[in-house]
Amino acid sequence: MTGALLRPGGGRAGRDRRIRVLPAHPGAPRPAGRTRSAAVVGGGIAGLTAATALAERGVEVTVYERRPFLGGRVAGWPVRLADGSDATMSRGFHAFFRQYYNLRALLRRTDPRLAGLTGLPDYPLQHSSGLRDSFRHVPRTPPLSALGFVALSPAFTVRDLMRMHPVAALPLLDVRVPDVYRRLDHLSAAEYLDAIGFPQAANSLAFSVFSRSFFADPAELSAAEMALMFHIYFLGSSEGLLFDVPDAPYPQALWEPLRGHLDGLGADVRTGTAVHGVTPVPGGGYVVETDDTADRHDTVVLALDAAGLRTLVGASPRLGDRPWRERVARLRTAPPFLVSRLWLDRPVARDRPGFLGTSGYGPLDNASVLERWESQAADWAARTGGSVVELHAYALRDDTAREAQQDLLLRQLHRLYPETRDARVVDARHEWQADCPLFPVGSHHDRPTVTTPDPGLVLAGDLVRTDLPVALMERAATTGFLAANALLHRWGARCHTLHTVPDRGRSAPLRAAAALARPLRHPAPPVPAP
After folding, report:
1. Taking a C-beta distance cutoff of 8 angstroms, is the pair 72, 43 a contact?
2. How remote is the C-alpha of 95 from its chain's centroid?
3. Model's pTM, two decimal places?
4. What is the Cα–Cα distance from 510 to 326, expressed in whole angstroms?
5. Could you give the C-alpha distances from 89 to 53, 55, 86, 259, 389, in angstroms and in order?
6. Angle 481-90-75 (CA atoms, 0-180°, nearest 5)?
7. Terminus-to-terminus CA distance in the chain, angstroms?
8. Contact 291, 270 (CB under 8 A)
């Protein structure tokens, strides 16, 4: 089903007229009979979405978050800088793409017109060789988007196009879930691009950057996940590759207002409260155990990262059945990544973009100049005459020497923006994390879904398998709504409407061509240069 998606207050929330609408299952305004209760374990995007969706239907919700702040991997926390300034540190830049319909629907609970998000003018990519790509002038509607990208990109030459294998690329023209996993989950992203004969320059400049946004090397990432990503952000949606970012630190812009919304709905949000076990109760319900309490709830939403979910399920031996528990135990975490934020005593050049994806600069995957959009960084830069710069490095080795890697990122910044070589680092904060889900080759069928063998237990998060075209933060929000809907439907209450990008290729002739593609068993051999 398609149609215009309207936001509160009027105006279309997405420009794509082929937005897929998944209507809410009808039901009563709230669960019939006695008041129902739900524990939501995890206060990231998925958990907050599920908590909001349930509380809005009159469910008594308790959110348990082990850290002292909300937001999960999009959280922020206060720090005091060496110069005495107060600042907010986070795990780094996140792009709020305009295809993130369900995440944006969550944020509209407290910001109906999304006034707290500001659009960046471009999504530029730069290779150390000097090649540079931009999506600012690429048409946003497929197939003109793909044709425009090829025509405008310096990474494509006539010779490159002649050497490509268009038949191998046909599945990208009609990406459907779960069919794309049947076609491509047995290949890595790197193998699939080789099979297509994708130009090395374009691979290095553009698609390696996109693949690594899953925090994994393309040689490990499932080609099906990469194809789904192309569909969501490029081939299947007319929203384009432009995006928004919060104009204030994450707590102030996003999570403090949403916590206020939950408070107003009567939810009990407990930060700094770790859950150590969940036990089903004879006759129905679950006991959720923390350091201080053992609370009984009718239902439970587990909205944790892979390691957290494995640990909690391992400590809760009566949850689920053996096959389900084994599937949870097999969930993998992506390699470590580093976020370095630097407060410099002099500005970067005025023409530097707010965000830049990079390739060929050693481990540096992207660089951001935060004062271009974030109010707190802008205030600090205006007061000191400096700049706040953030550097990301993904898919690092487990045995990476941390201080050496941090120094290397700084040297790559000097290569990228030479004017920073003479800048003094007023303060630096480095976040090393390894808690993002990995989507390796052949893993889709084994990934747990929203529903579990226990009707009162559901999962949410970007690690959860769903047959909808969503990824990253949008997968987290979407599964949060799906988890809440599963419980609401069980109680006969009205569910929440969801929206996604189209669930298939946009053109009937291109869909017909994609149907002719043979399954790829091995990467196609390279074609000799003419």
Report:
1. yes
2. 8
3. 0.93
4. 40
5. 29, 30, 10, 19, 12
6. 25
7. 47
8. no
